[in-house]
Specification:
This protein is an alpha/beta fold. The chain has helices at about 20-30, 70-80, 95, 100-105, 130-140, 160-185, 195-200, 205-210, 250-260, 275-285, 290-295, 310-315, 315-320, and strands at about 10-15, 35-40, 60-65, 85, 110-115, 190-195, 230-235, 240-245, 305, 325-330, 335-340, 350-355, 355-360. The protein is about 35% helix and about 15% strand.
Length: about 350
């Protein structure tokens, strides 16, 4: 991974799962050299499935006993030649182990140190344990989603907080700190709260409430299902279509294609939304999902199919963009995985080496 936008950057990564593992996977795909700092093989630990986090492709791994002076000495020697340290310990744990920011800065004043946690290192909730669903709850995400049959928030179905609220949040913070370091020579301490990242993702709704006092709930406004032009519809074969025809021109195109021209001038008429939604539902039920995609997706209507994960993996557009690559395990087994897809990533056909390479 030598030609990406972060080529030449060395990252030491204490994490195994969660937001921090997402962050270092992104940095790796952008060209950074990532060295996993792992416990001795004999230590009790929880490892993710072999395929998770890009199977730690093209990474290295050093096993250190950080409770021993020899392990700490080895870690300090690595810090001396590194650019970034990423950790996901509970607040205070890294300092107690002797691998916190102050210890690292003493060895390397230019180090960019990123501590990733659920709720940040300060505040009343700093010591709380949590996972993705907890951060989505605190940041307001779950309260604005659709509802289950029992009235509760719908399950998100993806680790949005870990991936974006924590992982991409941290990767952006690290990249920006590296830019600043290049200009000033100064390292940085980054206190990345995954819940803060969720709050950032919810900024449209939070800012609306802060400015107007209007509470955002399912069905209360455009992006939470108030209008028929921004909704999901079932096709004849049971497949679903996502409609996002917000702009008037797109809505008009959709209405004409569905034989619902009479609603073109009533896109945001609250009294007619149930009627429009029913008319759209009836129209979509006349043809199969992929027939509608063929007719509408390229016709400026903002319509796309709701794909299953299996369909995602064979979608012709995603395949054409090189989204899926081959990887090889140490035992020679070949498998497919999601490749580097973020802008600026190092893209090549593969096969990639799966699993971190053990180094001394």
């Amino acid at each position: 991974m030598t030609n990406g936008t972060l080529a030449g950057i060395t990252v030491l990564d204490h994490s195994t799962v969660g937001p921090a593992a997402r962050a270092t996977a992104a940095l790796r795909d952008l060209g950074a050299s990532v060295i996993k700092i792992a416990a001795p093989a004999s230590a009790a630990r929880i490892d993710p499935p072999f395929y998770a986090y890009g199977a730690h492709r093209e990474m290295k791994r050093v096993r250190l006993d950080l409770k021993s002076e020899a392990g700490l000495d080895r870690f300090r020697s690595l810090v001396a030649g590194a650019d970034v340290v990423v950790e996901a310990f509970r607040p205070g744990v890294a300092d107690r182990l002797g691998v916190g920011y102050e210890a690292c800065r003493t060895v390397n004043p230019r180090i960019v140190y990123c501590a990733i946690s659920g709720y940040g290192s300060t505040g009343p909730y700093a010591a709380w344990a949590g996972h993705d669903i907890n951060y989505l709850a605190l940041g307001g995400f779950l309260a604005t989603q659709g509802r289950r049959a029992d009235g509760g928030p719908a399950f998100p179905g993806a680790t949005i907080a870990d991936a974006a609220g924590g992982g991409l949040h941290a990767a952006l913070a690290i990249a920006s700190a590296l830019v600043r370091r290049n200009a000033t020579g100064e390292g940085a301490y980054l206190d990345v709260s995954t819940a803060d990242g969720v709050l950032h993702m919810m900024s449209l709704f939070v800012d609306e409430f802060l400015a107007t006092g209007d509470e955002i709930a399912p069905g209360s406004e455009l992006l939470t299902g108030r209008y028929a032009c921004y909704d999901l519809y079932r096709a004849r074969d049971g497949g679903w279509l996502a409609v996002g025809a917000i702009e008037g021109a797109f809505f008009a195109n959709l209405c004409r294609a569905l034989g619902c021209d009479r609603y073109i001038e009533h896109q945001f008429d609250d009294e007619l939304q149930d009627e429009i939604r029913a008319a759209f539902s009836e129209a979509f039920a006349r043809r199969d999902r992929d027939e509608w995609v063929s007719a509408l997706a390229g016709a400026n209507t903002c319509v796309a199919p709701v794909l299953s994960i299996a369909e995602v993996a064979r979608d012709p557009h995603l395949v054409a963009r090189g989204s899926f690559v081959d990887a090889t395990r140490a035992d020679g087994q070949m498998f497919k995985q999601l490749g580097p897809v973020l802008a600026g990533s190092v893209r090549r056909p593969g096969p990639y080496r799966a699993g971190p390479e053990e180094v001394g």
